[in-house]
Structure formats: C-alpha cells, structure tokens
Design a protein that fits this description.
The complex is a heterodimer of chains A (280) and B (350).
Chain A: H1 2-40, H2 46-50, H3 64-95, H4 99-113, H5 116-131, H6 136-160, H7 164-172, H8 177-188, H9 190-205, H10 232-241, H11 245-279
Chain B: H1 3-16, H2 18-41, H3 44-47, E1 51-52, E2 57-58, H4 61-92, H5 95-110, H6 113-140, H7 155-179, H8 183-191, H9 196-209, H10 215-223, H11 226-236, H12 239-268, H13 271-276, H14 294-301, H15 308-339
Antiparallel strand pairs in B: 1-2
Helix pairs in contact in B: 2-15, 4-7, 4-12, 5-7, 6-7, 7-12, 8-12, 9-12, 12-15, 14-15
Classes of the chains: A mainly alpha (280), B mainly alpha (350).
C-alpha cells in the first residue's frame, strides 16, 4: 500500500509539472506581446504611418516606406506563390493517391523545412545576379517560393475535407471530372483555401532572411519593384542593430505593427478554419 | 476521360512537378556557385577554423560547430518542455482548456523571427547578464561550458531564443503523435493498475529509452483483440513489460521525428540567432562566449562579400546547411509518417 501511495504522489507531481511546462511555454508569448505594447505603442503616431525614415537627429521619422514596401513585396509573393501553391494542393487532393502524389507531398514537406535564408540566396542567383541589382521583385519571388509548399499542403487538407458525396452527386448529374473538381469540390473548399492563404501570408510577411539579398531594404519611399525596397522586418532588423535610441524606439513600434499584422491574419484564419471543420 | 479532363490533369501535374524542380535547382545553384571554394579548399574547408576574407582563407568549422551547438542547447531546453506541453494537451488538460492553450503555443510559431531577435537584444540578454548569471555563477561557474566572462551576446542567448522558437513545432507534432496512440492502449495501462502518469511515461519514456521489441511479439500482440489483450497480457507479463510493449510501437518513431523536425528548424533559423549570438568565428565550448552559425554568417556577409572566393565560401556553407536540413527533414517525416500517416507535419504550427 505504501508503494502505491508514493506512485500516486509521484504521478500527481509529474502531472503538475506538465501544467508548469504549458505555462512556461506560453510565458514568452505573453512577455513578448507585453513588451511590444509597452515599448512600441507610445511611438505609434501619425508620423510613424505617414513619414519615411529621416536622417539621425531629425525628429519625426516614420515607417511609411517600410509598411508600403511590405505590402508590395507580399503582394508580389502572392501573385507568384498563391496560384501555383493552390494548384499543387488541388493536384495532391485530387490525383495524389499514387506514387507521384507521395513524392510531391514529401518534397513539399522537405521544401517547407529548407531554411528561408537558403531560398534567399537561391533567389539572388536567379534574379539579382542576372539583373545586376537588388529588387523588390526578387524579394517577392523569394517569398513566393516559400508560399508554394505551405499552400500546397494546406490546400490539400482543405480540399480533402469536402465530402465525397458531393463529388459523386456532380458526376452522377453528368458533370465532367474537371468541372466537378473545379466547380463543385474546390469551390466548396474555397473558404478553407483562403484561410490557408491568410496563414501562409502571415508567415511570409514576417520573413526577413530571404529579403536581405533580394529586396535589400531602402531608407527612402519607393514603389519601384525593379529597385531595392524597404520592408517592415528589414527595417526593424536594421534599426534594432543600430546605435541610436531613436532607432530602437522605432524598431519596437515597427515590430508592434508587424506582429499585429501577423497575429490578426493568423487568428482570423484560425477562427474560420475551426468553424469550417466543425461543420464539415 | 474527356479532353477537358486530360488538360486539367496535365496542367495540375505540370505545376506539381515544379516542386521537385525547385528543390533540384536550389541544390544545383548552391553547388555550382560553391565550386571555386570546393576546388580550392576541398574537405579542409569543413575542418579549418580560420575565416579571413581579406587574405582569402576560409574554414567553416566555427560556423558548423556553432550551428550544431546552438541547436543542441535549444533542443535540451525545448524538448522536455515541448513533451510536457504535448502530454498536458493530450492527457491532463481539461477539455475546454485544450484548444486555447494549443492555439497560444502555436502562435509562438507565428511570431516573426526578427521580433524574437529584437526581444533577445533588449530583454533576454540584459535579463541573462544582469539577473540570471550573477546568481547562477556561484553554482555553474566552475563548469567548463560556463567559463569566461559573460558579456551578453552568446551561444546561451541564441539557444534560449531558439528553444522558444522550436517549441511550438515539437509540441504540435508530438501532440499529433500522442493523439494517434489508440485509446485502448491507454486504457490497458490504466486497467493494469498504473497511475495516469505512469501510463503516460510509458508512452513517452519507454518509447524513447527502450528501443527493444521483436517484430514477432508485436504482431502477436496486435493480433489479440483489445479486451483479451488487456486481461491476457496482465496475466502473462509484469505491468511494466506489458504497458511498454503495447504502447512501444506507436510513439517512439513519431516523437523522435518531432524532435528532429524541431532540430531542422533550429539549424536554419537566421535572424533571431544573428541578432543575439555575437557573430564571432571561433570554436568555444563555453555557452557564455559569442559564436556564429551558418545562417547568421550568410545573413551578415553575403551582400558585402569582398571577393568571389568569399562568396563561393558562403555558398558552400549554404550547401552544407541545405544538406543538413534536407536530411533532418526527410528523417523526421519518415518517422512521423509511420505514426500519423500522411499528415502535413507541423502544418498546424505554421
């Protein structure tokens, strides 16, 4: 009996330890969000969103160039990555049963694990080096290449959620296979696919490493995609490492804007997915 | 099939083939651009530790060492925590708490790495330097891995940040793996008189520590109907043996896979590490000293490379990193797929 008691006590202690682990895991998130709010919120004024960087010593610089830059680069990434990624996802869900599907699925997962900085130097060899200069276009393509494998997998999952009876009904009505696939199956998975896109975009919007040698960054406002362009994460990186307090202040503010963008996108996406899965 | 069907399938297949093409192209570009360094330094590149762009001498040992070392530190911190979280989420947490806690942990993966870096510079490093180390020095100061003066930017800081960053991945995949363990096995453990915790540890600990089970006994066990298995096994074997043998086939591979997946993430992580590790080309076992990683070196030096050889050397370390992460990911996915078949590993944690 004594041994039993000790074992049960041990069990309770270890159970408590797993509660502790969960708390410890969430703690950094809470601390980071709190710090961003404390250090960043004070600097979010009108100037921050409307002005570009100013020379050190002058007051009133902002992140407008970086915010616009991020929107443009992420837009380019979507233009490149979303159609391909979604198409590959549909392929995996519709024709992915065989050998080829297995291979593609596997490679998508492996590509997901390739460090983003490696994608960055690859984009450099293909776009920056031949063109002779850094460009937002190269940055967008680099982020697009990161989007493709993520989207392939999330799209596949979403298309697979569509009940088979729907497909059978369409085929029974005499629909051709491709029309069944596109107009019935994929269409009813649209909400899920869009959610997957939002989550993936949230992830690449925060990527810095692939932009270092592609979009490069820019202290000036620019919307020219053939030239270097600023981006939020690049600007936060540059300012965080800089020596001036003013820069650090703005880095925190930029980080706050960046994380709001990312968290809002991922939370909205999650909410939609959860609702969708419960219905399916 | 109609012509429309053929076209549809062909177009989708062609687009899908872009993925393997991309993987191959990345490999080719890395190797082709690294060739000057390969032919000049050969294998010595991997074992020398001089990195002097001005004199054109390049040895990648400090980078490779730093990459592996900081990731190892990260795993040592993150794995127990992540497994604790996964067990909490699948076994102990009240149902209403599971989804919110899982979501919060997954959100850790959504935080951009540059923000981790910012946090590392201005919060974590001062915390470690001014509060952790002055206290911990009395206990840990004599250990060789804590030798030297602590200025802040260090392998330790990088390891802690990486631990936070990989934690959600390991948690998410381990959780998937644990969810794949059939309830009947769990019930069997409990029915045999094990406490809840003992049942869980036999899922995890046993599966990681005791790698021993014969294929025959496994097949025999699986062929027995669950109800009889519970009773029958209890009569024939000790409880420990029973529970471990029943649960063993499931979790081991998957959890090791989860850890390797986390390792792959840690190895390739760039920005946060670059910002806190101190960026010094030196092999030092002390966690308090600055180090350098492959990804950080590429981030810092690539756009300012002083010569073609410098660039080639960076491509070569890039190729090494690419190779290591490909191996890690392949291994991880094979292991996890054995448990949770075909699931998009870590996709929930993106």
């Amino acid at each position: 009996m004594h041994g039993r008691l000790i074992r049960r006590l041990f069990g309770s202690v270890m159970t408590g330890a797993t509660y502790g682990a969960a708390v410890l895991a969430i703690l950094p998130l809470a601390i980071i969000l709190a710090m961003l709010l404390v250090k960043g919120a004070g600097s979010l004024d009108w100037n921050f969103f409307t002005k570009s960087a100013v020379p050190v010593g002058e007051a009133g610089g902002g992140f407008a160039h970086a915010i616009v830059g991020t929107l443009i680069i992420v837009g380019l990434a979507c233009a490149v990555g979303v159609p391909i990624g979604v198409a590959v996802g549909i392929f995996l869900a519709e024709f992915g049963g065989g050998q080829l599907g297995f291979v593609i699925r596997f490679i998508a997962d492996v590509l997901n694990g390739v460090p983003s900085i490696v994608i960055g130097i690859f984009a450099w060899t293909w776009l920056v080096k031949p063109m002779g200069h850094f460009s937002a276009l190269a940055g967008g393509v680099a982020l697009g290449m990161i989007l493709v494998p993520i989207l392939a997998r999330t799209t596949e999952e979403m298309v697979r959620l569509v009940p088979n009876s729907l497909r059978e009904a369409a085929l029974a009505l005499g629909y051709q296979r491709w029309r069944t696939s596109l107009q019935v199956v994929v269409r009813s998975a649209t909400a899920g696919i869009v959610t997957g896109v939002l989550v993936a975009v949230a992830r690449v919007a925060g990527e810095t490493a692939p932009l270092l040698f592609t979009a490069l960054g820019n202290q000036f406002f620019s919307t020219r995609v053939q030239g270097p362009m600023a981006a939020l994460p690049l600007q936060v990186y540059a300012y965080a490492l800089g020596p001036y307090d003013e820069w650090h202040r703005q880095a925190w503010a930029g980080a706050l804007v960046l994380i709001m963008l990312v968290l809002v996108l991922s939370l909205v996406a999650r909410a939609v997915v959860r609702g969708k899965r419960q219905h399916a | 099939m109609s012509r429309g069907d053929v076209v549809y399938r062909t177009v989708l297949t062609a687009l899908a083939l872009l993925l393997p093409l991309l993987l191959v192209l990345i490999a080719i570009e890395l190797v082709a651009n690294a060739m000057p360094a390969v032919s000049k330094f050969g294998f010595g590149f991997l074992t020398h530790s001089t990195w002097d762009p001005v004199r054109g001498e390049f040895g990648a040992l400090p980078l490779i060492f730093g990459t592996l070392y900081s990731s190892l530190v990260a795993l040592i911190i993150a794995v127990p925590l992540a497994l604790g979280c996964a067990v909490f989420l699948t076994e102990f947490a009240p149902r209403w708490l599971r989804t919110p806690v899982a979501t919060l942990i997954e959100l850790l993966a959504a935080v951009p790495s540059v923000i981790y870096g910012l946090w590392g510079i201005f919060v974590l490093i001062p915390l470690l330097r001014d509060h952790f180390w002055p206290v911990a020095r009395h206990v840990l100061g004599k250990l060789p891995i804590f030798s030297g003066v602590f200025y802040g930017p260090s392998v330790l800081a990088a390891g802690v940040i990486l631990a936070v960053m990989v934690l959600p991945y390991i948690t998410a995949v381990s959780r998937e793996v644990l969810l794949a363990v059939p309830p009947s096995q769990r019930e069997a453990g409990l029915a045999l008189g094990a406490t809840r915790w003992e049942t869980v540890t036999t899922v995890i600990l046993a599966v990681m520590v005791l790698p021993y089970i014969t294929a025959v006994s496994r097949e025999v066990l699986l062929a027995v109907p669950p109800s009889q298995r519970e009773a029958g096994l209890a009569l024939g074997a000790t409880r420990w043996e029973t529970v471990t043998t029943v649960i063993l086939p499931y979790g081991r591979a998957g959890i090791i896979g989860a850890v390797i997946l986390g390792l792959g993430r840690a190895l390739g992580e760039t920005m946060a590490v670059t910002m806190v590790i101190g960026n010094r080309h030196e092999v030092s076992a002390s966690l308090l000293q600055p180090g350098y990683t492959i990804a950080a070196a590429i981030a810092n030096e690539f756009s300012e490379a002083v010569s073609d050889m410098h660039l080639a050397a960076l491509f070569m370390v890039g190729a090494v990193l690419f190779l290591i992460t490909i191996i890690a990911n392949t291994l991880a996915r094979v292991l996890v797929w054995r448990v949770a078949r075909g699931s998009a590993v870590g996709s929930t944690a993106i």
